[in-house]
């Protein structure tokens, strides 16, 4: 038997002896999924990560560049403390790795056309998968703001803090002044955001 197969078999045997479980029908993330290079299928092998969270990780990586630390996953919409606890030791970050973009790492998704109204507010002809829409960014609390695609705990808190410090937003596009929100994030929730 080749050395790599022997070592893999040995590692699996040791893991099972130590109480690990194995389901042949479910993909398993044994260790070291590099969140900077993993595609959606690899991310979905992690506990608690399905298609939606995998897409959110890839989109965050596309919008913000490679992850610097594993703890930066906390900034991804949908990744909370319990998910972090279950995947923290199963993921890694490789410096200098070339991440896959959202387009190449996930299957094609339906897109919607957007237009700008006279007030500069973005609207969409249809918003796919946006059950909590529309979201008024001037009146919603942090939990309401998390209904915006791509907005997690930290970005929602930043929006509330910015609004407290500077007053209401005149348009949804004004969110680009909030730290951590750029054009790609604005594009994600173009049809879901309102200021009225």
Short description:
The chain is mostly helical and 196 residues long. The chain is 35% helix and 7% strand.
Protein architecture, described:
- Helix content is 35%, strand content 7%.
- The protein folds into 2 domains: 23-105, DNA polymerase, domain 1 (Orthogonal Bundle); 114-194, Orthogonal Bundle (DNA polymerase, domain 1).
- The N and C termini lie far apart (68 Å).
- It has helices at 3-17, 40-43, 51-64, 81-87, 102-105, 142-145, 153-166, 183-188; strands at residues 33-34, 91-92, 114-116, 122-124, 135-136, 193-194.
- It has a two-stranded parallel sheet.
- Mean pLDDT is 72; it is low at 3-16, 20-30 and 99-130.
- With 196 residues, the protein is mainly α.
- It is elongated.
- A hairpin with a 5-residue loop joins β3 and β4 (122-124).
At the first level of CATH, what is the class of the largest domain?
Answer: Mainly Alpha
Q: Give the structural class.
A: mainly alpha
Which word captures the global form? elongated
Q: Strand order, biggest sheet?
A: 1-2
Runs in which pLDDT lies below 50 for 5 or more consecutive residues are: 3-16, 20-30, 99-130
Range of helix content: 25-40%
Fourth-level CATH superfamily of the largest domain: Photosystem II 12 kDa extrinsic protein
Query: What is the makeup of the main sheet?
Result: 2 strands, parallel
Using the CA coordinates, give the radius of gyration.
Answer: 20 Å
